[in-house]
């Protein structure tokens, strides 16, 4: 979870104060801010001219649920996932597989292989879905989505990506990967509020079945005088998959402020800046005998550090007690700096790590 920039906090405070006067809301407040947010998110996914590609969702599990609902499985099908993948992109597939007699095939990376190499070894004639992240949440190791996407298409499988640990910090290869669905929570590298995220949907899935049968995504919904002229027609695009109450009058202004900041920084520039910083982290870690992924195998913004004998169970708490905050994920320390960090922070991190 990212710290919230001042602009995002200010937007939330102003929005909460406005919510105390609901009579000031007009019809446009239900629609215009959401469409602005949709445009910002579409640009970060790599499709700035296609805002209809984006649905507003409350969580990654919701977005994956949309994918599950619109990618029917049959008995004997396989869903490829990664070892220790974040559960939001596992549980929905596990339940869907259980219902029809399909199965999950979990990819374990070993023998120095990249994730892409390991995934290619798991994709076969029975593969129906490849459900993977762009960046693994435990240690920042990367998945080459272009390679994986091509392999999935060769066997007619769908590619579903959880980009929570990458969107906003790493360019998303939308054209090379050609995914079916991509979802990202907004509260990490997108600096937005908890409870709001984004689902990118490929064009051939935009006429599918939403998880909810709400009113606001229907044709003509902006005409409040005719809401009881019930219709089965949805607005064009992925908006049919939007969560109910998508107009959230506090979270949406915060999310807009956040995505405007990220867009202003520039994702390419963020990645380059953080790559320099994580290179210093990796060099210092290697000098202490810690295991660090090779540069080609790790994202520019996250470094996973491992000790040959493992770390003490209380290491995270010991570091936090000294004002150093990292995440312990599996057997790795996940170090994930951003633009508010510098080499002095890195030096302090290692000084504290050495002391404990």
Which key terms come to mind for this protein?
single chain, about 350 residues, alpha/beta, Aspartate Aminotransferase, domain 1, 7-stranded mixed β-sheet, 3-stranded antiparallel β-sheet, about 35% helix
Coarse shape:
globular
Mean residue pLDDT: 96
Whole-Å distance between the termini?
25 Å
Strand-pairing-aware structural class: alpha/beta
Helicity range? 25-40%
Q: Based on the structure given, which CATH architecture of the largest domain is correct?
A: 3-Layer(aba) Sandwich
Q: Uncertain runs with pLDDT below 50, 5 residues or more?
A: none
DSSP summary, beta strand count: 10
Number of helical regions: 11
Descriptive notes:
It is globular, with a radius of gyration of 21 Å. The model has no long low-confidence stretch (mean pLDDT 96). It is built from eleven helices and ten strands. The chain has 356 residues and is of the alpha/beta class. The chain folds into two domains: 6-265, 3-Layer(aba) Sandwich (Aspartate Aminotransferase, domain 2); 267-355, Aspartate Aminotransferase, domain 1 (Alpha-Beta Complex), CATH 3.90.1150.10. Strand 5, helix 7 (174-177) and strand 6 form a beta-alpha-beta unit. A seven-stranded mixed beta sheet has the order 1-7-6-5-4-2-3, with helices on both faces. Strands 8-10-9 form a three-stranded antiparallel beta sheet, with helices on one face. The longest helix has 21 residues, at 267-287.
Describe the secondary structure blueprint for this structure.
Blueprint lengths: L5 H14 L7 H19 L8 E4 L2 H11 L7 E5 L8 H10 L2 E5 L7 H6 L6 E7 L11 H10 L3 E5 L11 H4 L3 E5 L11 E5 L49 H15 L1 H21 L15 E3 L9 H7 L5 E3 L2 E4 L7 H13 L1
Parallel strand pairs: 2-3, 2-4, 4-5, 5-6
Antiparallel strand pairs: 1-7, 6-7, 8-10, 9-10
């Amino acid at each position: 979870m990212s710290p919230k920039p001042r602009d995002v906090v200010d937007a939330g405070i102003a929005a909460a104060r406005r919510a105390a006067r609901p009579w000031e809301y007009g019809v446009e407040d239900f629609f215009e801010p959401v469409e602005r947010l949709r445009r910002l998110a579409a640009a970060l996914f790599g499709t700035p001219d296609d805002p209809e590609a984006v649905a507003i969702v409350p969580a990654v599990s919701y977005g994956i649920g949309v994918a599950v609902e619109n990618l029917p499985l049959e008995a004997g099908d396989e869903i490829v996932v990664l070892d220790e993948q974040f559960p939001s992109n596992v549980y929905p597939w596990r339940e869907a597989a259980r219902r029809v007699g399909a199965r999950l095939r979990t990819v374990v990376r070993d023998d120095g292989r990249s994730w892409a190499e390991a995934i290619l070894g798991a994709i076969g004639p029975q593969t129906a879905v490849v459900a993977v992240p762009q960046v693994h949440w435990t240690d920042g190791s990367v998945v080459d989505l272009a390679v994986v996407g091509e392999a999935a298409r060769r066997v007619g499988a769908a590619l579903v990506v959880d980009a929570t640990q990458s969107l906003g910090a790493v360019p998303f290869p939308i054209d090379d990967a050609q995914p079916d669905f991509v979802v990202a929570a907004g509260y990490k590298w997108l600096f937005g509020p908890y409870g709001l995220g984004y689902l990118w949907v490929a064009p051939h899935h935009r006429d599918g079945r939403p998880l909810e049968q709400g009113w606001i995504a229907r044709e003509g919904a902006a005409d409040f005088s005719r809401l009881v002229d019930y219709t089965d027609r949805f607005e064009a695009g992925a908006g049919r998959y939007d969560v109910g109450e998508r107009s959230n009058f506090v979270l949406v202004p915060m999310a807009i402020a956040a995505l405007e900041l990220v867009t202003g920084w520039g994702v390419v520039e963020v990645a380059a800046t953080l790559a320099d910083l994580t290179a210093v982290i990796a060099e210092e870690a290697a000098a202490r005998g810690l295991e660090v992924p090779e540069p080609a195998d790790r994202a520019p913004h996250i470094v996973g550090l491992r000790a040959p004998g493992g770390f003490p169970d209380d290491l995270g708490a010991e570091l936090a007690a000294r004002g150093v905050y990292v995440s312990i994920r599996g057997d790795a320390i996940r170090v994930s700096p951003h633009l508010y960090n510098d080499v002095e922070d890195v030096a302090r991190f290692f000084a504290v790590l050495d002391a404990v």
